[in-house]
Write a structure and sequence with these properties.
112 residues, 2 helices
């Protein structure tokens, strides 16, 4: 299993255990993709998952570039066009490091 796939499985479990309802994993529309779309407390969460085997070359969330943020915004716009019932939306980043032990770092409501 690839590190990214392992991270997305761990992320889904993490969010479910913390009271989120997973709506979609790897939602795709044309060339757009969102790792996880979840809801909690009437808020739609657009979640980018970044996973690294260790922190030797920096933290996983260091790899969330401005280009990636713009991509996420565009993907979310497509999703919200299809499902306009959501009034509250939040962008989150979950960084997962696998070694030496699995650790999670959630960055909520990323300012875009």
């Amino acid at each position: 299993m690839l590190i990214g796939q392992q991270g997305e499985m761990l992320a889904a479990k993490y969010f479910e255990e913390n009271g989120y309802q997973i709506l979609y994993k790897n939602w795709r529309q044309q060339h757009w993709e969102i790792d996880i779309i979840a809801s909690k407390n009437n808020t739609l969460h657009i979640i980018e998952v970044k996973t690294a085997s260790n922190n030797r070359f920096g933290y996983p969330d260091d790899n969330v570039s401005q280009m990636k943020i713009n991509y996420l915004i565009n993907a979310a716009e497509i999703f919200l066009f299809q499902q306009p019932q959501w009034e509250q939306i939040q962008f989150d980043v979950l960084a997962i490091t696998l070694n030496p032990t699995v650790s999670y770092y959630l960055i909520e409501d990323v300012y875009l």
